[in-house]
Amino acid sequence: MYAFSYNTPQVRSSIVQALTPVFETMKQSQALLSYTIKCDAENNTVDVQDAGVILIDYELILPGVGEKVVNRFTIKRRSELVE
Fold first, then answer.
1. Tell me: the pLDDT tens digits for 63-81?
2. Cα–Cα distance between 39 and 42 in angstroms, integer?
3. What whole-number distance in Å separates Cα of residue 41 and Cα of residue 12?
4. Cβ(35)–Cβ(27) under 8 Å?
5. What would the pLDDT profile of 23-53 be if each residue is shown by its tens digit?
6. For FRET with 14, which of 1, 32, 39, 81 sits at 20 to 30 Å CA-CA?
């Protein structure tokens, strides 16, 4: 959508405005606790602009998510069966 767009303040602002509702929905559903979106002249320096890039920096704070799933098995011998 923004490919081949000029790296101008208006385009960068439009990018942030387009992304904000997505992150707000994720925040409301508790998929993340907070976020920041940075797409301005500070991270889009003249060198970045001359390279033909629009740089967007995200900072996300996630809730405690389950990174691992642990399965436990207890194996008993036949003699331990309760009949």
1. 886 777 788 877 777 776 7
2. 8
3. 9
4. yes
5. 999 999 998 999 999 999 999 999 999 999 9
6. 32
Tokens of residue 83, six digits: 């009949």
Residues sharing a CB contact under 8 Å with residue 40, sequence separation 6 or more, in sequence order: 9, 12
| Helices assigned H by DSSP within the chain | 9-28, 46-50
What is the rounded distance in angstroms from the CA atom of residue 31 to the CA atom of residue 22? 11
Residue with tokens 């959508």: 1
Q: What is the pTM of this model?
A: 0.73
Q: If we measure between CA atoms, which residue out of 58, 54, 74 comes closest to residue 2?
A: 54
In this structure, the number of other CB atoms found within 10 A of the CB of residue 48 comes to: 14
Determine the Cα–Cα distance for residues 63 and 75; give it in Å rounded to an integer. Answer: 35
